[in-house]
Design goal:
Helix Hairpins; 82 residues
């Protein structure tokens, strides 16, 4: 009888590994690459899940940068008005 137990791959790095160190542009560019790879559809299910998780982490990082930029602009406007 054939072995039907699923083969496990070595543990992958967490999806958010290194994301906190990326600039906005780096995170955005990597997110574009992740989306492109997912859209091509050649990845296995496990790879697709890992890509999706990485994409989510990258999107959160981009959002952090954008929210930080908005806060800085708001503070600059308030200082100019005050």
């Amino acid at each position: 009888m054939a072995d039907v137990t699923p083969k496990t791959s070595p543990p992958a790095l967490p999806a958010d590994s290194g994301v906190d160190d990326l600039s906005y542009e780096q995170a955005r560019d990597e997110l574009v690459r992740v989306v492109t790879e997912l859209e091509q559809g050649g990845a296995t299910l496990e790879q697709s899940i890992a890509l999706w998780e990485r994409g989510e982490a990258l999107a959160r990082r981009c959002e952090q940068w954008l929210l930080g930029a908005k806060q800085r602009l708001d503070a600059a406007r308030a200082a100019a008005e005050g």
